[in-house]
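Q: Structure tokens for this one, please.
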Amino acid sequence: MVKLHQLATRVVAFAALTSAAAAQSTLDFEIDAAATQFTYSGSTSLGPIVGNPASFGLSGNTGIRLSGAPGALPFAAELPGTGTAVVAPDINATIPNPLPFLPPLATVSITNLTFSFSSPSALVDGAGNVTLELTTTATSGIFTVAPLAGSQTVTDLSGSQSTPQPFNANISVIGTTTRITGPLNITFQFTDPASGITGTFNLAGAFAAEAIASLETITPVPLDFNFNGICHPGEDGNPDDPNGFRAISDRALDFTAGVPANQISDPFVLQDQAGALDIVHLGNRNAVTNGLWAFEATADGDDIGTQPNWLLDPDQSVPQVTNLATPIPIGSNAEGRVLFQISDGGGSFDVFFSLQSGGSVFGTVSGDDWFNGTFLGRGAVDAAVPSFNLKLEVGTIDLSAAAGDSITAVSFSNSSNANGGVAILAVNVASVGLGTNYCVSNANSSGGSAVMGARGSSIAANNNLTLQASGMPANQFGIFVVAAAQNQIPLGNGFLCITGTIGRYVGPGQIRSTGTTGAFELPIDLQAIPQGGGTAATNPGQTWNFQAWFRDGVGSGSDFTDGISITFQ
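A: Here is the predicted structure, written as tokens:
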């Protein structure tokens, strides 16, 4: 089992960083019905509730969103209220009569009950532990009360909610499977409108669910910023500072307390320094809002500032281009993700990715007006007075047709709203991880199982592949091994997952240390795969199987990751 902090080194990789963040989308977790079992109890204004039966299980699914700041721990998790958990069997109970020889005071039943779970975002620590304030909402269910004296009443439970309860969960990973487990207590209060009976149902048990997630490689694009348009510490209240902050319209984001944690922006690297250019501006500050905020000729201390020294030309409506010093490879199923906001009514703009091959990929992203979002905002134009919240949005451009190529430049142009401004805060290139994991990895002395991963390109001619291994004990040595065929042969404390002619990466610099993170990686030459006493070139259509072999201080003294199989194009 790989804890979440070990998952970081293999789920999301950055071009210039070895640490990473968790997957950034909402995952569909399948509830483990065998491991999710509850008992229930309760009390009412007439007496205790006695169940028949007194236990039930959950099946179905629930959405869980994992996110994290790039290259850093801790992560964050939340439940957005998606999915449906199905209760089985139906809940039946009685309120016993104090005189045991008489019929029950009432019978209670809940049939066709389904739940959804929701919680605000909460931090997950390096061991995968998180406390979520969980609210359980009944998405369907019929509550029936039949009192000893009086008429039966039937109530639709749809929309009824439990009180928020702490869910002390653990999130871990086995291969590409993310699992959440923990004790779960749910309390529902009810009132029968006909009889006046009030009471509480208490549901207590163990919850477990898991999701199969595609591994991603996320690479931030280092943009050439052209505008200081986010208010950082010390940049407010000085609208005429010749080197300071300026709004792109009448307001701006408020980062005076630091870069905020937010599921929308967490996957991106944002500028956190005052006095620095922090966005790519597409538009003309002197023309927005019908020219109402045009820079003034002289400093007079009002809300509208003078044209700053760092802005040579206020008209930035022409294409704004970033040329990359180091091309960014495009992996399988890749997409570009743009974090942006648009003032004065919203609109759209174009994004061009120039390719090393000489071609390009083009896409248009659209957004609403930036007003009334979840990020703190500043108003009063360049005076940057605390004001209404603002919105950030993410646009995506499909890059999959260019898999195997590399990005050399990105440009922004053709804003549809000449009366507004566009602020581009960051761009990521995301690709689904390479290969298919197979075979078995036993638990090692780290307490988890070691896992293989890979990033780069499956295009053989690109010769761009980095092998990754994680979940190993810290400060041990290891190597990668490779073969054309798969197997599962007991060896050492684990299994050798390859067979036939086995190559070992033991050349200069290829013997790696797991360091303090229990992980290592190695860029390899696809045209020189070690085989026997020589090397072999990788051809389109060929499959290689990789595995890591590492020292461990228990048992036979060595162990293995699982295997990863990659078919090259």
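A few notes: Confidence is low (pLDDT under 50) at residues 1-25, 69-74. DSSP finds two helices and 41 strands in the chain.
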